[in-house]
Each structure stands twice: as structure tokens, then as C-alpha cells.
Amino acid sequence: MSDPTQYVLSGCGAATMQGGPDPYGLIPDAAVAIDRERIAWVGRSVDLPLHLRGWESIDLEGRLLTPGLIDCHSHLVFGGDRAHEFELRLNGASYEELARAGGGIASTVTATRAASEGELVASALPRLDALIAEGVTTVEVKSGYGLDRETELAMLRAARRLAQLRPVTITTTFLGAHAMPPDYEGQAEAYLTEVCIPALRAAHAEGLVDAVDGFCENIAFSASQIDLVFQCAAELGLPVKLHAEQLSHQGGTALAARYGARSVDHLEYAHEEDAVAMAKAGSVAVILPGAYYTIRETQAPPIDLFRKHGVPMALATDCNPGSSPMTSLLMAMNMGCTLFRMTPQEALTGVTTHAARALGLSDRGRIAAGVRADLAIWDVTRPAELSYRIGFNPLHETIFEGQRCSR
Length: 407
Prior knowledge:
Layout: E1 6-15, E2 26-35, E3 38-44, E4 56-59, E5 64-67, E6 69-71, H1 83-90, H2 95-100, H3 105-114, H4 117-132, E7 136-142, H5 149-165, E8 169-177, H6 188-205, E9 211-216, H7 223-236, E10 241-244, H8 252-258, E11 263-266, H9 272-281, E12 284-287, H10 289-294, H11 303-308, E13 313-315, H12 329-340, H13 344-350, H14 353-358, E14 375-378, H15 385-388, E15 395-400, E16 403-406
Parallel strand pairs: 1-4, 1-5, 6-7, 7-8, 8-9, 9-10, 10-11, 11-12, 12-13
Antiparallel strand pairs: 1-2, 2-3, 5-14, 14-15, 15-16
Helix pairs in contact: 4-5, 5-6, 6-7, 8-9, 12-13
């Protein structure tokens, strides 16, 4: 009897994202052998090695196979919603005006502090389920809506709990430097040294932190203030990433590059020297069209500069209650192409290979021997269809760590 954890997917086109003559690394009439949670072999069906031909064979009937998708920037765990602020913005209020009036991030902080850890998990699950239903197998989740030690840790614990309840990998990012709590208004350094950095140390001691982030913006923290947090991250041996140049140019990208940041995210107002610095640092540019769309930004991120200097580009939902209430990575791909003129190949690479790189994960984001068997099977034949369609989900089935999961 064959081992049920060893099987071969065949009768498919496999977008391996491995490069080569085809930009998607597409193998027509492919076979992919899976041995437990890893990929054992990839190639054309006619070249399947003899020792694998006795494994169970699953005919995908011409469907497209891709790596499992990766959402490398999300704020999935939070309390409440900001539908009222959405309405206010449409009646003329700007994102900055709402933030300065106690709305924006601050209003979500109030709701998140009032929620229990269990309530945070329960409210995040539908958002996570929406991502999983689109072939997402890895999600980064940030804290940043507590702005005190107890709630920041509760958010990170809730995020970790999500991975125990669903077939998905969750990576956690500490974002204590997200906004100024009302009781520290005008005292940024005091908040960072008295609350944020001690909370980071506590979260790290509890094993809750995979990376450290910050919001470098005129309504949040300056580059020199973020530097205090990054110094602590370096001391703890934690990688960094940064929200930078979203609403204005504050020099956050240059700071992030000096720390070898895994990614710099948003980047609408980035300059050419920022692209050069990111290329030298090996940082990924995480493009977030959901926020651009929601706050009705008019300045697009400099995609051509990232191409010119070889900066890898990822795409993500930026799922959050205020500036990007979006739980569709497929929609983010379409937006990246339509709003920013990214190519469909760049979009798919941006939610697979480059998204994995933005999270420091070398064991996923492509279809190759030895990597995790996190895969998505689609009822399409061309990879470009994943970016082309609007509001349509062609997912047929997901494979997570070698286990087949129904849609």
C-alpha cells in the first residue's frame, strides 16, 4: 500500500517561480512529487523518476499550480472597525486630520485595549479565513494597536493562536512604534523608552516576536525616534522592517537600509536614492495598493525606480481597519497591476518569492525540491489570470505542509 503522505500531482501547468526561459518558471504538463511536508521532485511528467511512479498520482486536469500565496504585511488582529471614519473621509476629512483629531489608529487602540485575547482571536478569524480561501498559506501579522505592554503582548499571542486554529503559517511583527497613545502626546521619546521598548523586550522574552517594525511618518515617529527602537531590535538579534515614505518623505527608508531591513513598506514618496539604498541593503519594497486606494492617494510608489535598481517588489493586503480594510490578496495583485502598472509576473512573484524574502523565509514562495509543500491549485491555465480578474476567486484547492485542504 502506498504511503498517503507521498503522492504526485500531475496533469498541471506548474508556475514554479524559479525563473528560466519563462518568466513564471512555467512547466507545462508538470509533475510535482510531495513527500510529507516537502516537495521531493519537480519537472515534466514524462521525466518523473521511476522510483516515484509507484506513489499515488493525483491528476489536476489541466489546472494551474503555484506556490501558496504569502501576505507579507497585515494588521489582521485588532478590535472594532472604522467604518464611520471611512464615511468621514468620503465627506472631505483627510487621513491626517482624522489622526490628529483622535481618530485613525488611536480609535482602534481604544477598541483593541477593550477586547480580550479571545475576542481578538475570534474577530481576526474571519479575516484570516478570507485570505486562506484565496490560496494564502503564510501571513505576517503585526501588533501596534495596543500601545501599552499588556495589549501589545495580547495581540501577538492572539496572532500566534491563529496558526493553531487554521492551516496557515503566522509570522509575528512587533509594531509598538505605530502611533502615539493619547497619554504620551508630544512625548515620543518618553513613550518609546518607557513603554514601547520595554514591551518589545517582554514580547521577545516570551518568544512572540519574529521581526520589529515602525511607522516613520509626520503623524507618527521620526527617523531618529525609530532608530531608538531599531537599536533595541539589533541588541535582541531581531530583524527590522519599516512603514516609510507613505504620506511624505521622512528619511525612513535610508534608516531602514542602514539596518539591513528585510523590507520597507508603502514607499509612495520614496526617492531614487532610497531605491539605491534598498538595493544595496537587499531590502524588499512591499507595495500596498489597498492603502493607496482607500485614502485616495495620488502619488504612486516609484515602481520604475525599483525596477531600474533591481529592488525586489512584494505585494500585500496591508489588511487593517482604517487605511486598507482589504482581505483579498488577489485584489492586491490586480490593484498592483492596474494602479501601478506592475506586470502580472511581478504581481505573482510579489505574493510568492519576494513576499517570502520580505519575511526572511527561504523555504517557500517557489516550487522546487526541498522546499515546503505549500501550494495553490487554480481553475485557470494562465498565471496572468490571477491578476487579471476582479472580484473572482478561481482557487480549486490548497496544499499546506503537504496536506490537502478543501477550499
